Amino acid sequence: MSTAFSPIPRVHLRTSLSPPHPSPRHFPFARIRASLQESGPSIAVVGVTGAVGQEFLRVLSDRDFPYRSIKMLASKRSAGRSISFQDKDYLIEELTGDSFDGVDVALFSAGGSISKAFGPVAASKGVMVVDNSSAFRMDDGVPLVIPEVNPEALEGLKVGKGKGAIIANPNCSTIICLMAATPLHRHATVKRMVVSTYQAASGAGAAAMEELELQTREVLEGKPPTCNIFKEQYAFNLFSHNAPVLPNGYNEEEMKMVKETRKIWNDSNVKVTATCIRVPVMRAHAESVNLQFQNPLDEDKAKEILKNAPGVVVIDDRAANHFPTPLEVSNKDDVAVGRIRRDVSQDGNYGLDIFVCGDQIRKGAALNAVQIAEMLL
Fold first, then answer.
1. Residue 88 to residue 85: CA distance in whole angstroms
2. CA-CA-CA-CA torsion sign (145, 151, 154, 159)
3. One of 172, 177, 276, 357 is an active-site residue; which one?
4. Is residue 199 part of a domain?
5. pTM score, two decimals?
6. Distance between CA 2 and CA 22 in Å, rounded?
């Protein structure tokens, strides 16, 4: 299998017969971390065997996150298996109500039902819970945070104060969109935003990524595609996002973008509409974003603003027709922005169109959660 299309992030699960992960280049800060562990927090990773759970570990390693201990938590089905992280073997433990004793920070990515059952339990024990599910995002009193966008939402929350809390990670599409839209919003104030997403298999987890790869082989071999994760054929096709459709005709994914944008921007009046589509891309989402501003903003100034925005890289070469692609941002931290142009349907410089790509597993999930955890230290 070509590594360019490997459906699963680096997984270090193994049985007792499997050798440890052999490559030290994935863990370049192991010696530095060893000296920091005593003063660092105790961490728990909930859902460690999933695609985002595995990415949590990669991001913790890549960013030299200090910790004194780490718990690997998953379902009863995975308990007892061994996992290798930073050249050390850990036993995966079954998630229970007692799992959070002595834990300072818990990174959750095990689904909404697990978060609802165990997130409050952990917080009641003084744990700072960073939850990747949608379980608490719209709850009053639960911060919904993109560190580059609304860090003020974490004011007063710190590890070691003896009081736990739940902090919500926004939806991946919202994160990727607002990383690019927010710097422009700060300058010219967005009145209305129209978003069309082109979402990768990674958004539905490792099993969906595997199914896309399997279907691709099957279709090329003239076989009927296996459709276990999605009702539709995914390979060589695209379809409306698989989230449930609501009475207003929008699906849940689309309404997440509407509601979450308003909460993160603390602006209940901003008009947002979205159409979310699944496309046969393995990893990293793309989004076409149309912005209408209260104040004028020309494309040159917009490009300058975006070039100076943290966590954003501009790829906008009109002469070469080179703009962001999902492959270019896969496994990357930054969100890429291009196709920056004036909206010709509006008079003056009151509208822009941009095209955004970001790694759904990385910035759209694990990286954003770890950045939140860093701010809590």
1. 5
2. positive
3. 172
4. yes
5. 0.89
6. 20
